[in-house]
Amino acid sequence: MRQTSSFRLLLSAATLALVACAGTPDRPMPEPMPPLAYLQHDDLLTAGLGLDGLRNPTPPPFANPAAPSAEELRRRALWTNWRGIADLAPGGGYGELYGSLAPAPGREFHAFRRVDGAQQPHRVMVQVPDAFDQGQRCLLVTASSGSRGIYGAIALAGAWGLPRGCAVAYTDKGAGTDWIESGSAPRHDIDGRLGATPVPAFSPAGAEAMPRVAYKHAHSQDNPEADWGRHVRQAAEFGLEALNAALPQQAPFTFANTRVMAAGLSNGAGAVLRAAELEGDWLDGVVAIAPNIWTGASGRQLFDYGTEAALYMPCALLHPRFDAVALARPGGARPPAWLARCASLRAAGLLAGETPEAQAQDAYARMQASGWSDAALEAGALSVSFDLWRALGVGYASAYARSAADAMPCGYAYAALDAQGAARAATPEERAAWWSDASGIPPGGGVGILDSLAAGGDPVLPGLICLRDLRDSGSEGSLRLQAGIAATRAALPRAGLPVVVIHGADDGLVPEAFSGGAYAAWAQAHRRDVRYWKVTNAQHFDAFLGLPPLAVRYVPLMPYAYRALDAMWAHVVEGAALPASAVIQARPRKADATGIAPLTREDLAYP
pLDDT at residue 207 above 80? Predict the structure, then answer.
C-alpha cells in the first residue's frame, strides 16, 4: 500500500496533551504550543519513495507549487535530506554493504520546544515504528547536521534505528529550514506549511521595509549552538512522552527503564557530544561522526579556521602540490577566480610574493603552519568550489553575534536575488518550497548573499577580511561575536559514558585535527570512555561520492556510523566490549577502462 493512501490523522486526548504542552516541568514554554495529532505513515524512512525514488534527480512534485500539502512537503523534505547526506549512487554500497531502505510503517509526532532564555523554539520529532521492540525499549536521539531541518538526520538515525525496532527522536537544534522573508506575513506551521499560524516555528525580528530572508540558526538572536546539548536532551524527553502516548499499555517510558543512545553527524555530532556532558544518568551511549566540536583546550574553532579558509584556501590550492586534484584544476586549468584571490591578498598586504606561484606558495605555507594537512586542503577544494566557506562565515557570524536579519555583521544580508544579483521579493512558489528544499544555510532556493562591501576585481574579499577581523578587532561587534563563540565551548562527557567518535582523516570541512581528533585525545587524557576511529581516505560529504573523481578518491563515512551504532548497542544491551580506538585503513573504489568497481567490504576494512 502506498503512503498516500494511509496518510491519516489520528486524534486522541493523550496525543493532544502531549503536543500542546511542549515544555518540560523544569523548562516550561512561555506560551502554549498548538495541538497537533500524530500522523500514521506507511513509510517513516522515505515516504514511499524507496531507493529508486531517492535516486531520481527530479524532486517529488507539488500539485500546487504555491501551496503544497503537508504530505507533499514531508515527502520532498525526506528526498532532499537523504540526497544531501548519504551516498546512494550505484556501486557506493548503500543497501548492499550497509543500510536498508525497506519501508518502516509507524507514527510520527511533531512539536516545538524551547530552552530557557531562548526567543525562538526548536523543532522536535519522534518516529515510533509499528515494529517497536517492546522487549528492548530503545530510543535513539539525534540532531540534524549542518543547519538542516527536522528530517536532517534521517539517513543516519532513522535508517539505523527504525529497522531495529527503536523509536527515534530528532531536533533541528534551533536551526532548520523555517526561512522567512521580511514583509511576508505567512509563517511556518508545525507541518511545514506557510500560513497564519498562531505559534510559528520561527518569527524573526527586524525591519519589514526591504525583502530580506531570515533563518533561525543565524537570526533567532539566541546563538543556538550554545544550547545544542539541551536541544538534544529535550528531544529525548519528548521521545519518552511520545512513546507513552503511542504505547500506553507499556507506559511509563522513563530514562530509568528505556535504553537511550544518541548519534549525530557534523553539527549534529557536536550536538550529541554537548548532550553527553549534561548531568544525570539519562544517556547510555553516544556515537559522533565528523563532529564540529571545540573544547577551548585543543583543536580550533569553526569560525577561526573557516574564515581563514575563506581567505587563503583558493590561493593555497594553486600550489603545484594540488595540480593532480581534479576539483582544484577544473578542465585542467587553474581557476581564474583563485588567481585573482592571490593577487588581491597580495595587494591587501596579506600575502607575500610577486608572482602567482610565489603567492600560492605563501598561502600554502600559512595554511600548513596553522595545522591544515595536505589531505584536508585537497578535500577543501570542494568547499571552495561551492563558496561554502563564505556561506559559513556569514551565517555563523550572525548567529554568534545574535544579529537580526537586517543588522548582520560586516553589512551582509540574505535576499532572493534577480539575474543581476539585486534583492527582489521571493515568489510564493519559492517561499513555499524553502522548508522542504533548503539545506539550511543560504545560498539556495533562489536566495543569495547580499554583500554591501563588495568592490574591486575580487569583490568578496573586503567582506571576508571584515569577517576575519571580527575574531580579535576589539570592536563592539567583535566582542559580541567572541562572547557567542565562547558560549559554544564543550565540556568533558559524563564520566563512565561510552562514546565513539569517528572522523575522516581527509575531512576538508571540519578537519579531524581541529575537531574530532582533538576532542577524543582531550577526553581520553581526562580518562573518559571515548573510542576514536580515524578513517583514512574519508572526507566530510558522503553525498558527493557519486561524482566519479570523488568515488575513486574517498570512501563513505556512513558505514562506520552504522557499525559503531551496532557496537554501541551490543555494549549497552549485552555488555559486549566496544572496539578499541583505531586508524582504519580504508581504500577507495578502483577504476579501469571498464568503469568504477563497486565498493567492497574489504575496501571498508571495518574495525
Answer: no
Q: How far apart are CA 373 and CA 377, in angstroms?
A: 6
Cell 561551492 found at: 386
Q: Provide the CA 35 distance to its chain's centre, in angstroms.
A: 28
Measure the CA dihedral 195/197/199/201, to 10°: -20
Using a 10 angstrom Cβ sphere, with 0-12 exposed, 13-18 middle and 19 or more buried, the burial of residue 135 is: exposed
| One-letter amino acid of 552 | V
Q: Mean pLDDT across the chain, nearest whole number?
A: 92
607 three-class SS: coil
Res 29: pLDDT: 42
DSSP letters of 324-381?
T-GGGSGGGS--HHHHHHHHHHHHTTSS--SSHHHHHHHHHHHHHHTT--HHHHHHHH
* Cα angle 342, 314, 483; round to 5: 105
Please tell me the predicted confidence (pLDDT) of residue 324: 94
Residue type, 550: L
Peptide bond into 121 cis (omega under 30): no
Q: How many Å is the Cα radius of gyration of the chain?
A: 23
Reduce the DSSP state of residue 583 to 3 states and report it.
strand
Cα–Cα distances in Å, from 445 out to 177, 213, 414, 415, 416? 11, 11, 12, 10, 8
In the residue annotation, 266 being an active-site residue is answered as yes
Q: What's the distance, CA 277 to chain centroid?
A: 20
Q: What is the pTM of this model?
A: 0.94
Give the residue among 263, 270, 308 at the shortest CA–CA distance from 292.
270
275 by DSSP, 3-state: which? Answer: helix
Of the residues 145, 266, 398, 436, only one is catalytic, namely: 266
Distance CA 183, CA 211 (A): 6
